Batch of 3 targets.
Target 1
Amino acid sequence: MDVAIVVLPLIAAALAGLFGNVRYFTPVVQYKHFIGMKGLRPRRDGRNTLGYRVQLSYIQGFSGDVAPPFARFYSGGDNELRGFDVRAATPYGWVPVRTNITLTNPDGTPVPINPNNFTLGNITIPIPIYRPVSVGGDAAFTSNLEYRIPIAGPVQFEIFDDFNITAVVRASQLRQSVEGADQLNSPLYGCTAYFNGACQGGQSIQFINVIRPIYGTNAVPRMSIGGEISAMLPIVNAPMRLYYAYNTNRLYENVQGESLITRSMFPAGGAGDYTYAEAISAYDSLLHFREPRKTFRLSVSTTF
């Protein structure tokens, strides 16, 4: 039996004196326990092993700052949630973006800047959209349960159950930088007319700098159950694992897209009508979030 309790706090206030750019703290509480088993009964002299781990994590910015995106929690992968890709089990949010769409005729041909000189390219119209992006969570709970059965030498078979919830608890911690917001709000959007290939009559858009979590993707329970064959590699001192995971809980959601696109952002006429319809179809249509139902993978790592 091996019992371990790990508390790993990043005390940002204390580190701020040494590293002036530290403006967030991340407490992580983890508990692991391994029990010798004989069949389904706990026995010190048992040949099999029942192991489990629970982990609770939280991140918080302070002094008016927020934790950077790379420091937030993105679950999934061999080390915690085997049925999902690394950093794939995460909440999603609407991130404002400035993008360009090509002005296109109803027959599908682009409108050139200069009909007499196609090398100059085509007319493009800047439009404001909201792009779905994995934003990570500021809180995460993970539990892992394994029943390990030795087969021969370093080879063993395991039955596992991995569970995770990663959530955005404080939406105020999802904010864009001031510089990023200024870059989005400063230029004009749309092209009501064009002269010599240059757009005229753009509109001013003011995005809010708070990134909104997408409804239906936040705090989604995810769980993988499956079987695994592993063998300890002598040189790297890590197990080579071949496992199959079935995801009983996953993100499977249809979400209506969002944008600030209006017909007034496009020039009058057939090209404007067609391009507007194309923009709505591309950026304001139904989104399908589909995480995998099952995973079969070879890995060299350990879960806990």
Note: The domain at 2-300 is CATH 2.40.160 (Porin).
Target 2
Amino acid sequence: MADPARRLAENVAGDFFVDGTCIDCDACRQIAPTTFRDHGDQSSVYRQPTTEDETRRALMALVACPTGSIGTARHHDTRIGVDSFPNLITENIYFCGFTAEASFGAWSYLVVRPAEQGGNLLVDSPRFTAPLVKKIEALGGIRTIFLTHRDDIADHDKYAAKFGAERIMHAADGAARHGVEHVIEGEAEQRSGDDLTLIPTPGHTRGHMVLLYRDKFLFTDDHLAWSPSKQTLIAFRDVNWYSWPEQTRSMIKLLRHRFEWVLPGHGRIHSDSAEAMHAHLARCVESMKKTP
């Protein structure tokens, strides 16, 4: 729980606040952008919720916060936030919420698919928490867990054990060490069923991968995201742990694919026509080539 004694001075007066344990993961700003802002190296409340929906979004941010850094001065029924997850993004794609500190607040996603199409798919891992587990059970459980890279695996082992799910991860990011059942090697793309393309994208880490679903939804984790300020797709140079030239080369590989959605672990979600997304990606590649 957030500590009122550590309430950040940047918060406006009122009910909701962020304390000094904030790790600046950006989750609250994405979930409730009318309430939370980035004031530098942390988040704070710049405007108190005034409507029922704004309060609900703020409570979603509170329960999703990986470090428990969001608090309130008065009592709220936090079940309002808890019961909002998994949160539907579009069609059959859900944001899991309950981000994990071990993953620096990275987002994970649930793709709900019929059993004959491979069953439900978890992309990266949220915290293992009873309310979320029950909701996922009600949606059909988890058949497969796709782990993009070593940074955002969180409680993957608990979800795999609970649902008997098979995990997919690249060997270069320690898949065998984590007990992963389906280990990917090399840089060749692989098809899984009729709707999944597994694409190794080394750069952020040696074994980073992205997942393309139905040639429409691209789950990118730390490889690619939307920038609201630049209004285009970007890569994160400052958190490139392995090789910027390799990440640039991996980005060029994506130019041969069509997609309409980018769903990252960090950074903003964005959707547009396949043609527009391709143009944004091409601009991103050119910018990366010019960045040392």
Note: The first helix runs from residue 27 to 31.
Target 3
Amino acid sequence: MCTMKSCTTVTWWIKLRRRGAIFVESIGEVRWKRYLFLAPMGCRLECGPEAQERQLRVIDATCPLVTKVHLEALKFAREGRTLILIGHRDHQEIIGTSGEAPEKTVVVGSVEEVDKLEVPDPARLAFLTQTTLSLYDTQEIVARLRQRFPSIVGPASDDICYATQNRQEAVEALSREVELILVVGSAKQF
């Protein structure tokens, strides 16, 4: 799970609830001809036809970086590659991204999981990352993937969110100046 949540984001979600927003897990829960607001973590791109069929007015607030990852997942799947998705299995972003090509996607969250990985064709692999991961953890996992599977391909540029990376670096710098950092957040990600 994402370990950092900004107070602004939490406040925003609370305000939406107070204004009558209903949070759902699937498009089927949204009444016909209503508004559908796609959260920053997005949904699989194929959710569009279902929204159209239900005559929903879609407000897409998906983070552009998350959309980029979804499009890369589709591209790698069309190329016939098995996609190694680096992230936390239960995170909304991983669920949405893996939904782009579920039959071609394997999720790993650690170097140990990479070591246990079995793939159909080691020469036809690609990797992508959850945008909100620790840059350091991601680097270790990618390095191990490249070591085990030298022909693996990845995105043209880093997919770690710059805002997430900035916050992680700020916490790291702060940790050198204080004895304790207390992070207050939700057990359930929004």
Note: The helical segments are 7-18, 47-53, 64-78, 92-98, 111-115, 135-148, 162-175.
